[in-house]
Amino acid sequence: MLTFTSYNVENVKDPFGILTGKRYEFVVQLDVPEDDELYLENGVSARAIIKVDEDQVSIVSYDLQETTTGQLLDFDMEEDEEAALLLFCKEHLPE
Questions:
Q1: Long-range contacts made by residues 80-83, C-beta under 8 angstroms, separation at least 24?
Q2: The whole model's pTM is what?
């Protein structure tokens, strides 16, 4: 199970007004145990685009990246990890 240690969130602007709902970009730092295949000495972050449309909140896309360099990692989260990330982002949406 992943643990989220800190995060940043920004509103993603839609300059053309063609997207429904609002979009937010979350960058969430993950606490990955050393024995996990995802572990990196420089840390791992998840960058997720979250869509909020009325009462529906969903992940549009996400990438895992090395925290220090921003280098994308070729890993996908498991379903329960994605669900945990979505729940975390949902709980930390800006007002």
A1: 80/1, 81/1, 81/2
A2: 0.90
